[in-house]
Amino acid sequence: MEFYEVIKKRKSIRSYKPDPIPQEVLERILEAGRLAPSAKNIQPWKFIVIDDQEIKEKLVSACRNQKFIAEAPIIICVVALEKIAWGRMGGYWSSYPVDCAIAMEHIVLAATNEGLGTCWIGAYDEKEVKKILKCPEDVKIIALTPLGYPNEDPPTRSRKPLSEIVCYNQYQ
Questions:
Q1: Nearest to 13 by CA among 129, 163, 156, 135
Q2: pLDDT tens across 99-124, in order?
């Protein structure tokens, strides 16, 4: 698929077919995340691939009862390794939220290119997710996404026009 077509085609999918994802497809998607840029190339992330149905079901309650996430054959959780992230972005904050968001978006776009659906999950109880996935205390949960073949084709959502969101040379 052509790059801009992938961007236009990406939608939040909330219904999945049970069809398994071939390992080589999953690896291409994870490789896209691995190749994402990060501050100072530190790559302060890990990708947790969840394919165990019992664990997926536990994540439903930790993700505000979004039942559709357990329908997908896989859930990917992107976690940040805060201790190793570059800590002086803008002179005052850590790069890990941006670094991990870029990696997650690479995963989401690669999945779209492969004909798979995703839905960026930011509504979760971090303590519960960490407990379920046995994450150490110093790891930050950034986002989760179900990954699977879509069982729906939701309408395209509107976006603001460029004239509302682009400024040239200064904030206007």
A1: 156
A2: 999 999 999 999 999 999 999 999 99
Q: Please state the domain extents for the chain.
A: 3-165
Q: What are the phi and psi torsion angles at 93 (to 5°)?
A: -135, 160
HSE-CB at 108 with a 13 A cutoff on CA atoms is: 22
Pairing relation of β-strands 139-148 and 117-118? Answer: antiparallel
pLDDT tens digit sequence for 41-95: 999 999 999 999 999 999 999 999 999 999 999 999 999 999 999 999 999 999 9
Total count of residues recorded for the chain: 172
Query: What's the one-letter identity of residue 33?
Result: G
Tell me the CATH class for 3-165. Answer: alpha beta
What's residue 125's pLDDT?
98
In this prediction the pTM is 0.96
